[in-house]
Every structure is written in C-alpha cells, then in structure tokens.
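Hello Y.,

Per our agreement to keep a running log of every chain we model this quarter, I'm adding this entry. I've kept the format consistent with earlier entries: sequence first, then predicted structure.
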Amino acid sequence: MQQISIFSLVMNASLVVQLVMAGLALVSVLSWALIFNKISVLRAARRHSDEFERNFWSGADLNRLYEDANRRNDSVGMERIFQSGFAEFLKLRGRTGAELSDIMDGSRRAMRAAAQRELDELDSHTSFLATVGSVSPYIGLFGTVWGIMHAFIGLGNVGQATLSTVAPGIAEALVATAIGLFAAIPAVVAYNRFATDVDRLATRFDTYMEEFSNILQRLATR
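Predicted structure for the entry above:
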C-alpha cells in the first residue's frame, strides 16, 4: 500500500488549495516573528520599569534623575513618564503667579500623554495577531471546502469510487484547515498574553503617576 505523506498531499492539492496553504504559511511565519519581537519588547519594558522604580524610590534626587534622563536621551516607559511630568512641572512652576492647580494639572496631562504614547508603542501591531487568530481558521476552511469540492468533481468522472480514491483528495483538503489552525492558535494565545502584559504595565504607569503627582504637589507647596 502506498504511503501518503503531508508533503505529497500539499504538492498534489489543487492550485487554489496550494495558494491558501502558502498564504497561511506566510501569515504563520510573520506571526511568529512578531511574537518573538513583542516578547523581547515587553520584557525590556518591564526590566526598564523595574530599574527606574528602584532608582526612583531609593531616595535619589529628582533633579539628578531628570538630568541623567536628559543626558542619555533614551528614556522609555516609566522613566519617560517621569521626564515628561517633571519637565512640565519645572516649566509651570517657573512662571510668575502660577496656581498650584494649574501646575499639577499640566504635569498630570504631560504624564498621561507620555504614558499613552508608551502604551501605544507596546501595543503596536498586536492587532495583526488578533486578525490572524480570527481569520486563519476560516481561510483554511475555505481551502478545505474548495479541495473537497474539487475532489468530488474529479470522482464524478470515475466509474467506481472507493476509499482509496476518495481518501487522498479529502486528506489534502483537510491539510488547509490544519495549517489554518496552526497559524491561528499561537496568534490567539500570544495576543491574549500580550494584552494582559500591556494592561499590567498600564496599571503600573497609572499607580506611578498618582504617586509622583503627590510628590510634585508637596514640592510645589514648599
């Protein structure tokens, strides 16, 4: 009995099914590249936030932290929020007759804008994973339906249909669904994980902004 391999099924599939398989394979490769990149980006964001929080709460002088951030000019995450908020605080406090409420509102707006930019950067391109996760199974199913339809049309020209004549056509069509699931499942898992990680960082940013605002308010009243 002749052995049927996945490779032979793919090579013997109809052109439409082959195009579907190739498209899903390409999408899967792009998804994995994005997944590995996003893992690295989020890991670096957490590490930078941890390092900055240790420095910030160690009792370091705020002016020195601000000068160090400006000198390096590569601040990210929580440090960039601090940099934006403190810069706005210094600018508004230096104005003659500035009200405390205006100083604090301006500092908070600057920090919120910086935090939103950071979160947008961390969340960038993850919508691609959501799209892959939701669409790939249907694309694979389309390839399967087309392949089965093509197989049955071919069987119509055969005098007697047996399992050996039906099975290869059905199997090669089902490979499209398998590839669609192979592309979709990692994308969905990764998207949910990344969304959770970004939400956790957003919570940390919000908590830091509130705590830093309290510190700035005490500085403004001195």
